[in-house]
Design a protein that fits this description.
Order of helices and strands: HHEHEEHEEHHEE
Mean pLDDT: 80
Largest sheet: 5 strands, mixed
Helix content: 40-55%
Radius of gyration: 20 Å
């Protein structure tokens, strides 16, 4: 039997790590924003563009650091607050801004009229779906498919679970296993942190669900997130 005081120490330690991560993010992101602003000013002064390649390189590296810090903070954020979540409303509110921001991509959004409730943390679930939709966008942007850039996002009910599915006709998956694909620091994207899919897998597991990623026949990939439905 684990002593209560040990549980309390572990909880306090976990909270301390999260607080340090949030503080680190704040302390790092502020100077990053300042450096980027200075680079933008230098670009304006460089009318001949003689140092443009250097400016672009610096900005890419700054974006890489910013992305890494954000992913690390997202990964350490653990909230005990779970509630009944309307899966359709959650997906609709999250997908709409992507549709507006990327008119070059044909989005097909299918959400059932009937309400599907799951028990979970809305912020964490949004983080997962946000990561997965962003990955799909990156994939079709990189592939430039002849048939046009297409992403289908849907929500269905299957055997007591709410199933979020994202299909794209992008570059597809590298020849690695699912475990490798979702390992920390593994990435196929230039400047990627390698924490997005790992964080998504951890969060889905915390919700008692399952994450699946497979190649799509004809190109692209299919990502499914299954979360048990609540009785609400």
């Amino acid at each position: 039997m684990i002593p209560a005081n040990r549980n309390e120490r572990e909880a306090a330690s976990s909270l301390s790590v999260r607080e340090m991560a949030a503080t680190l993010a704040h302390e790092v992101k502020n100077p990053l924003s300042l450096v980027r602003a200075c680079i933008n000013l230098l670009e304006l002064d460089d009318e001949q563009g003689s140092h443009q390649k250097s400016y672009d390189l610096i900005k890419r590296e700054l974006d890489k650091i910013n992305s890494l810090v954000t992913d690390m903070v997202d990964l350490t954020l653990v909230s005990p607050e779970y509630s009944a979540v309307d899966a359709g409303a959650l997906l609709g509110s999250l997908a709409a801004p992507f549709v507006q921001a990327h008119p070059e991509i044909a989005f097909n959004l299918a959400i059932p009229d009937a309400e599907l409730f799951i028990t979970g943390n809305p912020s964490k679930l949004k983080l997962v779906l946000n990561n997965l939709i962003k990955n799909a966008i990156d994939a079709v942007e990189a592939a430039e498919p002849a048939a046009g850039k297409n992403i289908a996002v849907s929500l269905t009910a299957d055997g007591g679970a709410a199933v979020f599915t994202i299909r794209d006709n992008g570059v597809g998956l590298p020849g690695v296993t699912f475990d490798t694909l979702t390992e920390p620091r593994f990435t196929t994207k230039r400047g990627g942190s390698g924490l997005g899919l790992y964080a998504s897998r951890v969060i889905v597991s915390q919700h008692g669900g399952k994450l699946c990623i497979i190649n799509r026949p004809g190109g692209g990939c299919i990502v499914t997130v299954m979360i048990p439905m609540s009785s609400t």
